[in-house]
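Hi everyone,

Forwarding the result from last night's run.
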Amino acid sequence: MTVTVVDVPEQRRFVAREGTSVLGRVDYRVVGGKVRLLHTVVDAPGRGIGTLLAQEVLGQLLEGGAHVVVFCPFLVSWLDKHPELAEQVEVVRE
């Protein structure tokens, strides 16, 4: 089965789904017109779900022209390995 990543705006999160099963999520808030990525949770470790979430969430947001601010430590770490995307977002290291 294929894993898809979709925005669920009423829950303010992107979710990775395989059929009806949720495998992970990225929580966000929109503040002052900026999308703040706050927290990533992966319920199926070892399957690359975190990487898929990072790629898809950032790809969808940047493709849509959003100003993205990353607070989530997992996504900050992932961006350290992908400087081509890191240049397009604001990173907050706490």
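The CA atoms of residues 13 and 27 lie 4 Å apart.

Cheers,
N.
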